[in-house]
Amino acid sequence: KNEVEQSPQNLTAQEGEFITINCSYSVGISALHWLQQHPGGGIVSLFMLSSGKKKHGRLIATINIQEKHSSLHITASHPRDSAVYICAVSGNDMRFGAGTRLTVKP
Amino acid sequence: EAEVAQSPRYKITEKSQAVAFWCDPISGHATLYWYRQILGQGPELLVQFQDESVVDDSQLPKDRFSAERLKGVDSTLKIQPAELGDSAMYLCASSLGKPGTQYFGPGTRLTVL
Question: pLDDT value at position B64?
């Protein structure tokens, strides 16, 4: 069993829909990261959080330390949000989930 | 805005050949990471540097892979000889310290024929 599990693996949405991607982890962490990877391969760090909730534009990330669970929400989704979203946890080192491939159709 | 630079962006090679990838982290970032990402999977750490010292290379296949960061700034990852299974995206990241936000480069996509 992977230490970082993401769901769903693939997600297709219509433009404007509210999107949720989930991440569960089974190890102790100092922080949880949400990353965005576009088809070209480059990875952008969206959020680093260790408690509560963070918001940046249309993106919201939440974490529940007790339940070892985090969610990434995208409000009013847009085709340019299409990418792979990766959850990662950092402690002694960084462990990555397999990613959620999001496709937003116009 | 400061970025992590990597080159080349794409590399096609034949098996048994040697390949090398270069990474220049964000200025001032002491920690540098090399990751390998196989299609459809998350990145896997190959090696981590703190300044010029290796702090974790437990997942680096040392029979064919080597990495160095001689002056504690830029870094080179080498594969010799390359094998078909080495085809992947090789990502470099840097951070001010550990733990901390890692900033990723654009990656080098390696195809071994």
Answer: 97
